[in-house]
Description:
Structural class: alpha+beta
Protein name: Ribose import ATP-binding protein RbsA
Keywords: ATP-binding, Cell membrane, Membrane, Nucleotide-binding, Translocase, Transport
Number of domains: 2
Mean pLDDT: 85
CATH superfamily of the largest domain: P-loop containing nucleotide triphosphate hydrolases
CATH architecture of the largest domain: 3-Layer(aba) Sandwich
CATH class of the largest domain: Alpha Beta
Distance between the termini: 54 Å
GO molecular function: ATP binding; ATP hydrolysis activity
Low-confidence stretches: none
Organism: human gut metagenome
Radius of gyration: 21 Å
Helix content: 25-40%
Strand content: 15-25%
Number of helices: 7
Shape: extended
Order of helices and strands: HEEHEEHHHHEEH
Amino acid sequence: MNIEDAPKQVIIENMVGKHMTQTEQVRCYTDEVLLEAKNFSSGKKFQNINLTLHKGEILGIAGLAGAGRTEFVRALFGADPKDSGQVFIEGKEVQIHSPKDAKKAGLGFITEDRKEEGLILNMDLHTNVGMAILDQLKKGFGLDLKRESVLMDEYIKSLSIKCRDSNQK
């Protein structure tokens, strides 16, 4: 089949492997742009990627293994270096050189392999959650352990974490 001559419906059905009844995109987002990345490149990993995320939109980044999707997202978040590219949050350019910069700009990142990269499995729940909220626990040259305990209880409840206590591994 010549893809240029194929009807859109046939292409969709061949991609998903079954007949689709609804192929029209339902728009559930606004024109307000929350995040924009322009001309993102990193060596041979990925080149000139552009994306726009609107308020209310769910944006997926897909590709074959080795296509650079993970490397792009990690660079966007500042976890990996980029050669070029600009990031705009709500229309304002922000400089992201590290995850700390990304977090400060309001970006979050969930790794695709949470067990390997998202948790330190030989450490307890308390330590894993505590590392994510260190900036909220600073007190002078140390940590506010009383606040840490209160926040830990709040996170366990709000995230519905099932555990004996925060010392569970």
